[in-house]
Design a protein that fits this description.
The protein has 151 residues and is mainly α. The protein has helices at 2-72, 78-101, 104-122, 129-149. It is rod-shaped. The mean pLDDT is 91.
């Protein structure tokens, strides 16, 4: 009787050992697959965020250019005031989006640039003073934006 039990016990041990190894291999493969998928999703999310940031900066620069042009072409007509106000409203929206999508250092520079544009739009400056007033905040913002995008 004892000789008949040993082959059955060894067979059972072999099945348990094989099943355990199979389980460990499957669990390891599953974890590795999940990690690869998480990395892929993180990469896709980072790429999408970068595209969104680039589009926001492009929009900010485009609207800032409109505001600069409005300050340069200053007059007191209602159409000029409406155009200048629209440009400033869009700039403030872009500035808030920069606050959401970028570090606070870039946001602070964007805010300073928008405030400078706001000032030159509504305050009469001497000839040539417009560009001198905007040069510092504009250059600082553009340099920080370039640095932010090169990361």
């Amino acid at each position: 009787m004892q000789t008949q039990v040993w082959p059955a016990i060894l067979s059972l041990v072999g099945v348990l050992f094989g099943g355990g190894l199979s389980y460990l291999v499957q669990a390891n493969v599953q974890r590795r697959t999940e990690r690869v998928e998480l990395r892929r999703l993180a990469t896709e999310r980072a790429e999408a965020r970068r595209v969104e940031q680039l589009e926001l900066l492009r929009e900010f620069v485009r609207v800032a250019q409109r505001a600069e042009r409005a300050a340069e072409d200053r007059d007191t007509t209602p159409s000029w005031k409406a155009s200048a106000q629209d440009a400033l409203d869009e700039l403030w929206v872009c500035e808030r989006m920069i606050h959401i999508l970028f570090d606070s250092s870039l946001h602070d520079l964007a805010r300073a640039y928008v405030k400078a544009l706001d000032h030159v739009l509504w305050q009469k400056l001497e000839d040539g003073a417009l560009w001198d007033y905007l040069k510092g905040p504009k250059a600082a913002f553009l340099a920080a934006a370039r640095s932010e995008l090169s990361r």
